[in-house]
Amino acid sequence: MLQQRTSGPIVVRHNVLQGEYEVSRDPDLVLTTVLGSCIACCLHDPVAGIGGMNHFLLASPRNAINPLDEDARRYGLYAMELLVNDMIKKGAARASMRAHLYGGANLHAGMRAIGTENARFAEEFLRHDRIALVRSDTGGDQARRLDFQPSTGLVRCRSVGKHFPASQAASIPPAVGDIELF
Asked: Burial level of 69, CB count in 10 A (0-12/13-18/19+)?
């Protein structure tokens, strides 16, 4: 966890990686992630003052998967169930939960629209579970950076540009390896 000093209390930032989720009511915690075709669902229960975020890679596996396998967390169904169930265990009520969905970009033209599939899955899951979807920023062809304060439900989502301006590109060190956002 990264601690950042602001003019007020210490803000603790936790990066939620693929296959992870976190639920908290800590007012000093900010959950953050970067998304390409992945989806992050941010849930908040304003009555209980609790929230959580997950980050999943694919809507569903091509073959059956063992839920005890670490890879299961990378799939939407398992990731969404973990998030909702942990919220309920910690005092949230499904009826008062509010959801935000982010990510689901299709970064590579001509390839399977994984981002679209992921967003469609998450929307269906929320509809089936009767959890209100109050905000959705999905699709397109750009990655997103997301910051979420689970205790208040406040979210900041910014697009991550594909290209750097020429003045900044010269100051970026040469690449050592390739990085691809999914």
From this structure: exposed
The CATH number assigned to the domain holding 133 equals 3.30.1330.200
Write the pLDDT tens digit of every residue in 126-161.
999 999 999 999 999 999 999 999 999 999 999 987
Q: Which two tokens stand for residue 11?
A: 């803000």
Check residue 58 and report its DSSP letter: B
Whole-structure pTM value: 0.80
Q: Which domain holds residue 110?
A: 2-161
pLDDT digits (tens, 9 = 90+) for 54-97: 999 988 766 655 555 566 777 899 899 999 999 999 999 999 99
The answer to whether the CB of 102 falls within 8 A of the CB of 33 is: no
Q: What is the four-CA torsion angle of 60, 64, 70, 72, rounded to 10 degrees? A: 30
In a domain, 38, yes or no: yes
